[in-house]
Amino acid sequence: MRGMNKINYHKAQFLLSVADLKQLPPDEGAEVAIVGRSNAGKSSVLNQLTHNKTLSRVSKTPGRTEHINLFTLTTKHRMADLPGFGYAKVPNLTQEKWRTLVGRYLETRECLRGVILVMDIRHPLKDTDQQFLAFANECHFPVHILLNKSDKLSFQQIKKTLHQVEKIILPSEDFISLQIFSAKSGVGVKELGSKLDEWFA
Ligand code: GDP
Prior knowledge:
Elements: E1 13-18, E2 30-36, H1 42-50, H2 53-58, E3 68-72, E4 77-81, H3 95-108, E5 112-120, H4 127-139, E6 143-148, H5 155-169, E7 176-180, H6 189-200
Parallel strand pairs: 2-4, 2-5, 5-6, 6-7
Antiparallel strand pairs: 1-3, 3-4
Bound molecules: guanosine-5'-diphosphate.
């Protein structure tokens, strides 16, 4: 199945954590970022995609939760794990700090191809998610939404939520896409790989 994706996401390697944009690797090749509210399942998604527990552990390491954590996929392709918003688990990261680091990264990073936004399917499109989408719209970077933890809902409930979210993002459908995901069961991982391949191509 792995052969279906152009990039082998299991080859992901931790590169570095940065607290300042000056520490980022040269703005070359291509990056895709991943972000989400605390507890939406960002670390679990990374783990399901890469099968590399080191990466999800890094994204939880105290002191590194306020950093941008970079992973290499190939010599030209990287992923950037962005500090979560909805700060429950990131006590030292004020909104202002988040804007200075993450906001500036999103505004200025030339090699950024898009952002994966992880949401808990039971609580989709929270205020912070909507603010993020508005910001994406302003800065012109595409967003791919994962409605994660779909294993927690029935098929009918999933369909209903998907429909509700689709209706809300419809006006922005040329830059926002959406899929069902479960970091627990692996549902949607191939589709996520295809989206990343498309962005990285
Ligand atoms: P993060 O704070 O966004 O990095 O979230 P975590 O990856 O640590 O996940 C938060 C909690 O949700 C953990 O207890 C995970 O085991 C759980 N979780 C994450 N993804 C899923 C999923 O797809 N299904 C279920 N049932 N639980 C999940």
